[in-house]
Fold this protein.
Amino acid sequence: MSVRVAINGFGTIGKRIADAISKQNDMILVGVFKNRPNYEAYTAYSKGYPIYTSRERAGEFEKRGIPVKGTLEDLLKSVDVVIDATPSKVGESYREIYGKAGVKMIFQGGEKASVADVSFNAIANYEKAIGARSVRVVSCNTTGLVRIISALSKSLKVESVRAYIVRRAADPKEIGRGPINSVVLDPPKIPSHHAEDVKTVLGDIDIVTMAVAVPTTLMHTHMITFRLGEKVTRQRVIDILMETPRIALVSSEQSGITSTAELVEVARDMGRPRSDIYENVVWEESISVSGNEIHMIQAIHQEAIVVPENIDAVRAITSIEKDWRKSVAKTDYSLGVVKAFAKP
Ligand code: NAD
């Protein structure tokens, strides 16, 4: 039997999760709740996703030619899980409504960790979410960091992590956000909030993060140093990353790729929907070992990276799959996740 899923909020993240759910053979998208009849509502309608909205707004949708199936309460009655993809801090306000409907809840990283029982990443702590009432899929930067830290920590004695985050200013559709001509300390304190967020998944590790925002909409970039309690070879680090799902290598020597723009171009050439990159993309030549330290640079596509994690969160929270590797493999196959970029 398929798990019945609702999505509240059909923006950057919600629409991608909706499409990903449609590709799973153990889930069915029952409907999406939209609060405004904008172009994204048209997209949902044109894809055949049943639309739900509030009683007050239904007339506006109908006037624009978008049929409405019912209210949020109607939608929640017919599902097992709701995925909340409303803007940051809005999800919390729906918690009680979801709770009353008796559905399982998946929130996004813009919410406080306290919104859910578990802060989730499929590679790091899938088991913790099995059967939980609610989970929070951590944000894009945190997902990128948690994946790579947990990959190395499972095989090596990682003593500390220092991560320098170059954040994209806005998503491509966000016409009102910046900076457009500056480097902004984001936030102007160290550590940035990302370190605390990583700990919500990985526990009390030694991590410091620092972040600036720059005028690009494409991807984030992370420069990371891991200090180890043992010696390791560069090849061993590469082997660990190659063995870990959702981490892909790109070779600048082989492909000529040295930028996020070229990575996005590859995703376009691959025919990825919306040029989405679900993988942490690590530059192979950036991986270096000096003494007990490993250094590397990775790119994170903020709009896409949490999508596979939401799919796995559905399987974990409903207990339809208890083995994280099986869920991740299934999700990754459905989305065409790769281990190497721009390589035959
Ligand atoms: P978005 O603004 O693109 O989409 C939000 C959607 O919710 C829109 O469809 C909007 O119309 C709708 N909405 C607004 N108010 C609502 C309300 N009161 N009730 C119901 N729907 C409402 O936002 P997003 O970027 O998709 O972010 C969603 C969540 O995902 C946030 O928690 C965010 O922090 C997190 N997230 C975003 C990114 C990213 O880069 N965009 C990456 C990872 C996680």
The pocket of nicotinamide-adenine-dinucleotide is lined by residues 8-14, 35-36, 40, 85-88, 90, 108-111, 139-140, 171, 302-303, 306 (CB under 6 Å). The domain at 140-305 is CATH 3.30.360.10 (Dihydrodipicolinate Reductase; domain 2). The chain is about 35% helix and 25% strand.
